[in-house]
User: Fold this.
Amino acid sequence: MKLVFAIVHNDDAGKLTDALRDHNFQFTLISTTGGFLREGNATILIGVDEDKLDDALSLIKANCVTRTQFVNPMPPVMEPGELYLAQPVEVQVGGATVFVLNVERFEKF
Ligand code: 2BA
Assistant:
């Protein structure tokens, strides 16, 4: 068995979880925050048998879109009277960041 951790954009989470449900995958949805942008994203934990792993990854790929976002960098330390004009920096987010882990043991009590 494998455990898939998929970190996805909040706007893709609904479509992806609908697709996973339609294909009978069991999963847990956690509200998370990206360390860099400090914006909400969604982490989906999916426990899958190995023969279904590729199907789960295909659904993630099909339902998560790459987006461009702009971030304002931290302003530098300024002397009084100095002017700083922030230049937003472009970053690409997603489609999905995916980790696949081996499951040593799986129990339901
Ligand atoms: P964030 O940490 O908010 O990062 C959002 C996007 O900002 C990243 O998109 C990446 O394009 C950019 N970025 C992140 N750190 C950066 C840095 N130090 N300098 C410049 N740009 C940077 P993605 O790579 O698609 O990541 C989307 C989200 O997936 C991340 O949100 C984070 O929540 C998670 N993630 C990505 N890589 C991870 C990792 N190695 N471990 C754990 N979580 C990860």
Q: What stands out?
A: The chain is about 20% helix and 40% strand.
